[in-house]
Design brief:
Blueprint: E1 2-8, H1 12-15, H2 21-28, E2 32-38, E3 51-53, E4 61-63, H3 65-76, E5 83-93, H4 96-102, E6 107-112, H5 120-125, E7 129-132, H6 142-153, E8 186-187, E9 190-191, H7 194-197, H8 201-219, H9 221-227
Parallel strand pairs: 1-2, 1-6, 5-6, 5-7
Antiparallel strand pairs: 3-4, 8-9
Protein name: tRNA (guanine-N(1)-)-methyltransferase
GO biological process, one term: tRNA N1-guanine methylation
GO molecular function, one term: tRNA (guanine(37)-N1)-methyltransferase activity
């Protein structure tokens, strides 16, 4: 069973996205354990502060090294982590291939930054992997941690009712997914393509591949360059 621990100053931001739907069912099935840890619980200060001003001139607060290290070391007494991840806008771009890789791990620890980030010594000496959702800045790492957790957990065997579903998602084969349709076959004159109603599995798969290829050319042509299609 996979274990994912998340360190945050705002645990309430993670309780909802990780406590419903597929994420909740995965935990109920015993396929993953998700622990959310309030960094303030590891502060020794009277008012549970975990941030302070940065050295040098400039605005913004920084999460201090001491409570972060206390939390990491406390969690490491319970288990060994395959990766200690820091959510950072200048980390490695999160993509499906990385989600696939992380889904093969046993235990993950995710650190959510806040304010101007964390003391650099944490990144230098404790973090093993830094992940970014994209070239923009959020108020904290919590939403990113939820995204990474969701993308990883849904790949675990038994989480989805149809395990082949995740294998046909966008980016798994280097292409975006083809269009999908459901019932009714006609609505206000808008019809489902005849090929999907034909029952001819080989022809349908060929059509889906062609649609994926065309959609990728239009929407994400850089994927074709990287895959040399």
């Amino acid at each position: 069973m996979m274990r994912i621990d998340i360190i945050t100053v705002l645990p309430e931001l993670l309780e909802s996205p990780l406590g419903h739907s597929i994420m909740q069912r995965a935990q109920d099935k015993g396929l993953v354990e998700i622990g959310i840890h309030n960094l303030r619980d590891y502060s020794v200060k009277k008012h549970k502060n975990v941030d302070d001003y940065a050295y040098g001139p400039g605005a913004g607060m920084v999460l201090q090294i001491e409570p972060i290290v206390r939390c990491i070391e406390a969690l490491e007494t319970e288990r060994k982590y395959d990766e200690i991840i820091y959510m950072s806008p200048d980390g490695e771009r999160f993509q499906q291939a990385m989600a696939n890789e992380l889904a093969l791990k046993g235990n993950l620890l995710i650190l959510c930054g806040h304010y101007k980030g964390v003391d650099e010594r944490v990144r230098e000496h404790f973090v093993t992997k830094e992940i970014s959702l994209g070239d923009y800045v959020l108020s904290g790492g919590e939403l990113g941690a939820a995204v990474v957790t969701d993308a990883v957990v849904r790949l675990l065997p038994g989480v989805l009712s149809d395990e082949t579903s995740a294998l046909t998602d966008s980016f798994q084969d280097g292409l975006v997914a083809p269009p999908v349709y459901s019932r009714p076959s006609e609505f206000r004159g808008m019809k489902v393509p005849d090929i999907l109603l034909s029952g001819h599995e080989a022809k349908i798969e060929k059509w889906r591949f062609e649609q994926s290829l065309e959609r990728t050319k239009l929407r994400r042509p850089e994927l074709l360059k990287s895959n040399k299609r």
